[in-house]
Design the sequence.
RNA sequence: GUGACUGUAGCUCAGCUGGUAGAGCGCCUGACUGUGGAUCAGGUGGUCGCGGGUUCGAAUCCCGCCAGUCACCCCA
């Protein structure tokens, strides 16, 4: 038997409804804030990610799906969404459109990692990007959007963490301070951290083995230049003004090379080790680094799988859509009438299903019950003669004759 | 990439110290020729993850591989 590829998932049944809800709610919310959708290819030149995500990052060094196409080009399946959107922004000269340009997107991303709870090789992200404004208001808006969105799904065990990692002007001093601090504790570091010390000092902060050392390490906020400091202060003020609760987390550094100033993350308390459902921040230099005009930008990405896991952890229900009705005939001679009534119901805005197995009336009732229909319309000789329908409420068992034209008002909406 | 645990029907699992597969649930049909999730009866369904080895004989023991789960790394 051919099985699905490691780290990929088939989404079906109840899960598919959940996913649809998570995605459509996001689209609604992003549109409300004035964002427009952008769909970029899943395939990009591998070089794009090497230059944006960073040559030295794990994502590029060992997690990218790369292949050579028949024309000998090095192609990658996108490991994240931002790079492709920046590429599209530059390629289409969008910097000459009105600023800011605000985009939302969603779709599959690919990273060759070992799967675990909340981590797949093909995973799905939804997110936004704002181009053309250096203002902390942009950071505040997209952070607020992400947080409000997650709350609107019903999630409550959320915590928002923010930080600033400065800019190329002030970050070197901070990095130096960290290096000094850790150099005095080299022998206390775990093996992974010894590597981090050489490779990327900032990441020493999120070591899980020894958190005490990181707790008392120098804080990036204390090293910010004046511009970065003002930026951060204003972000904090705007979040407060919008009534968004957050904590300043000086240990929050993000893994992708392109971040500047603002970084943020939203964690969920009901998940396993992979507890970040959303993350992002500002990347003021990426557009220029990829060959575009110098353009400040900010954005976030949220993991759909993790959102879904979080919703399951909180046992959240989703609102039902259309009221569903099953239409049965007492025998095969009613077939035409059954089809007609089902079409009428669909026309009226209901979901209507009919038997496709040529089953007996009782078997059809059984099917309707198994599929959780709350209403069944029954058609037989008697109904046909009198121009009525029998409408059965499957929850109460109550059944009554209804004139054909009155179906709509007799079927009430209810919540699942 | 590293580590731990796991792999028998669609699902959950049983199968003791080796004698070549079972249950419950599900699914289909019927009891129920105009009425359901309950009950009863029948039916459907398995290369015992894959490949080697040991043995007269392997789901059971050994090795390798693959897959799954969780954690590390990293990240959404």
Sequence:
């Amino acid at each position: 038997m051919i099985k699905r590829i490691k780290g990929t998932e088939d989404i079906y049944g109840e899960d598919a409804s959940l996913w649809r809800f998570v995605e459509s709610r996001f689209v609604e919310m992003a549109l409300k804030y004035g964002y427009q959708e952008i769909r970029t290819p899943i395939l990009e030149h591998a070089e794009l990610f090497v230059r944006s995500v960073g040559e030295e990052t794990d994502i590029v060094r060992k997690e990218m799906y790369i292949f050579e196409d028949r024309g000998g080009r090095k192609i990658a399946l996108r490991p994240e969404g931002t790079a492709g959107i920046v590429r599209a922004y530059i390629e289409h000269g969008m910097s000459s459109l009105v600023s800011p340009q605000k985009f939302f997107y969603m779709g599959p991303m690919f990273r060759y990692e070992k799967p675990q709870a909340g981590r797949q090789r093909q995973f799905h992200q939804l997110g936004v990007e704002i181009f053309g404004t250096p203002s902390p208001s942009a950071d505040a808006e997209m952070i607020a959007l992400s947080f409000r969105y997650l709350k609107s799904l019903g999630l409550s065990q959320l915590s928002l963490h923010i930080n600033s990692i400065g800019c190329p002007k002030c970050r070197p001093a901070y990095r130096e301070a960290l290096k000094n601090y850790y150099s005095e504790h080299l022998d206390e570091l775990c093996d992974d951290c010894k590597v981090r010390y050489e490779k990327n000092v900032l990441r020493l902060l999120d070591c899980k083995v020894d958190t005490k050392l990181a707790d008392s390490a120098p804080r990036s906020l204390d090293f910010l230049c004046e511009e970065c400091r003002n930026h951060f202060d204003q972000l904090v003020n705007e979040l407060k003004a919008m009534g968004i609760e957050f904590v300043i987390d000086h240990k929050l550094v993000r893994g992708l090379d392109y971040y500047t100033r603002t970084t943020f993350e939203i964690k969920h308390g009901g998940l396993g080790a992979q507890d970040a459902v959303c993350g992002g921040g500002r990347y003021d230099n990426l557009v220029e680094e990829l060959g575009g005009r110098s353009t400040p930008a900010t954005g976030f990405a949220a993991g759909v799988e993790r959102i879904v896991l979080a919703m399951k952890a909180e046992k959240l229900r989703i609102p039902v859509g259309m009221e569903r009705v099953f239409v049965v005939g007492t025998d095969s001679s009613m077939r035409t009438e059954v089809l007609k009534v089902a079409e009428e119901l669909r026309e009226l805005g209901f979901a209507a299903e009919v038997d496709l197995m040529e089953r007996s009336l009782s078997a059809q009732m059984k099917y309707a019950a198994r599929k959780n229909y709350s209403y069944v319309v029954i058609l037989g000789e008697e109904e046909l003669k009198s121009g009525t329908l029998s409408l059965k409420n499957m929850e109460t068992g109550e059944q009554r004759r209804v004139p054909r034209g009155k179906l709509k008002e007799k079927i009430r909406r209810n919540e699942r």
